[in-house]
Amino acid sequence: MKKFILYLSLIFTVFSATAQTDDAATTMQNPKKEEKIKALYVAYITQQLSLTADEAQKFWPVHSQYEAELKNVNVNNSNEIDRQQSVLNVKKKYQGNFIKILGSERSNNFYRQDAEFRKKLVERLKQMRQRKMENGNNGGGGRLQRGGRVKPQ
Asked: Which of 36, 92, 94, 103 could form a Cys-Cys staple with 66, CB 3.0–4.6 A?
């Protein structure tokens, strides 16, 4: 449990540091920030699934192929229902590979943890954008203090 909290705090720390100059859209287009997010994702999934070194060595190459196919699906489909079906098809295609490496229960858990990480990432990016908008619209009438409060000048 302590490791989980450590990983979450690490995620939030990285995003807080990157939020100071970029908005959410730019965050995902910056290669350095994408690398940080990827590293956090790998750490999070590895910890949540309790991957051994041997499992990780087998899992991550398959996951990279899986992720590449998902990106391709998201780019090539403009119809939302077709896109969702294509995503589901890719997940089903790779489910057998993940089961061979992780077993049925942990394979299922991977899909849950993957969705959970992405949900937390989106929430955090929204929070960062909101804070940036609030800080940018303080009218210049004060200095921003720790905690997001504005100190009048």
From this structure: 94
